[in-house]
Design a protein that fits this description.
This protein has 385 residues and is an alpha+beta fold. Helix content is 25%, strand content 26%. The chain is built from 12 helices and 18 strands. Helix 4 packs across helix 5. The radius of gyration is 20 Å and the shape is globular. The two termini are 39 Å apart. The relative contact order is 0.19.
């Protein structure tokens, strides 16, 4: 397991860290290879900094004190070998809502339809995939949701008896937005990520997540693993909450890279997201996806989630979706990929760095016990609010 985050050589990074002897999470940034505590009474939370008019300018100039080297703190952030007597990183968001976008790449749309048609049985997936590809082809990256071309494609699938609610959110006018976890429940770099023990067909979803203020302004981006139970969601889309929101099932990190002149939303739209999975059984998987192929822009997705129709006073972290759905067989031929305990999942982009997590059952991951009420009490005791 690597302890390198591969952060870009320049940029303004915002994160959270746990430090022994301090009850509340610290707000931190990275300067000259060190992790620096910038917690202040005016900005004691990630939410507060992201609500500022210019978060990057604030973080760049904020007074602070180093709590350790980035390499040492990164190494200690891996839960499997963590020393609780030393600092380690947390998810970079706290009070923000954690939402996710579904079926934002047309390629992953087909996989969602396949999941539903297979009724959670992975051995049926290859045959269904081939049937759908023979009907409409496999180059749908230019298909714009809601366009006449998209509606024609949808009609072909309906006529073939492959209608799905995923078609509505994938190529119809309305985006799918759902809650990935509660505020304070996401896990960070090095943490274990959880699978519900009932699942036997599941996978990582490597994504970029944007951070939006309560006004809908996108102020930065981070990496995310939208852990997914394919068999559970495939049985019924109404089980989406069970498939997506479990203990330690939402990973974000390593830091929020805040937007400034050298890093803007345009860079996110051009980014290539890489994924590797390394198993204790010697299995390995690699893949990548291009944000250029997203069917709905980040601005469109944020607007679908928040606006006059729905307010988020603490802002939000919004997973943008993935086009990468692993189908490489792991074990028996034709049954595709599924996680095994101990898998190491690494998600990376040149612009943001690397997010690495170990896979375990949700019931075996550290329970979520520190919520918004605990944070408020601890900040109050420290006279930070």
């Amino acid at each position: 397991m690597t302890n390198s985050m591969h952060l870009p050589g320049k940029g303004v990074f915002l994160g959270r860290a746990s430090v022994p002897g301090i009850a509340y999470p610290l707000m931190v940034t990275v300067r000259d290879g060190s992790v620096v505590n910038i917690t202040a009474s005016t900005t004691p939370t990630s939410r507060d900094i992201c609500e500022m008019d210019n978060p990057a300018a604030y973080v760049r100039s904020a007074e602070g004190r180093a709590i350790g080297s980035l390499d040492q703190i990164a190494a200690n952030s891996f839960e499997a070998t963590r020393d609780p007597r030393k600092p380690f990183l947390l998810s970079p968001v706290d009070l923000q809502a954690v939402k996710a976008s579904g079926v934002t790449f047309v390629v992953s749309l087909l996989e969602r339809v396949i999941e539903e048609q297979a009724r959670g049985a992975p051995e049926k997936a290859d045959a269904i995939r081939a049937d759908i590809a023979s009907l409409i082809g496999d180059d749908l990256s230019k298909l714009k949701p809601g366009s006449p071309e998209a509606m024609a494609c949808k009609q072909k699938l309906i006529e073939r008896g492959v209608w799905s609610q995923y078609l509505e959110v994938g190529i119809g006018p309305d985006a799918e937005i759902f809650s990935k976890c509660q505020p304070m429940a996401s896990v960070g770099f090095g943490a274990d990520v959880g699978l519900h023990p009932i699942s036997t067909w599941n996978n990582p979803e490597p994504e970029i997540a944007v951070i939006a203020s309560s006004k809908g302004h996108i102020v930065g981006a981070t990496l995310g693993n939208d852990v997914n139970l394919r068999d559970v969601e495939g049985r019924s889309a109404l089980l989406l909450g069970k498939a997506k929101d479990n203990n330690a099932s939402a990973a974000l990190g390593p830091f929020i890279r805040l937007f400034e002149e050298d890093f803007t939303l345009a860079a996110v739209k051009r980014a290539k997201v890489n994924l590797t999975v390394e198993g204790e059984d010697g299995f390995s998987l690699e893949g990548s996806s291009s944000m250029a192929e997203i069917s709905r822009s980040p601005e469109e997705l944020v607007a679908a989630a928040m606006g006059p129709h729905h307010q988020y006073p603490d802002g939000m972290a919004l997973y943008l979706g993935t086009m990468f759905v692993p189908s490489k067989d792991r074990g028996e031929k034709g049954k595709g990929f599924t996680h095994r305990a101990g898998d190491i999942v690494t998600i990376s982009t040149d612009e943001i760095g690397t997010l690495t997590n170990r896979v375990r059952l949700s019931t075996e991951c550290a329970p979520w016990t520190y919520g918004a009420s605990h944070l408020m009490r601890d900040l109050a005791k420290a006279n930070l609010i």
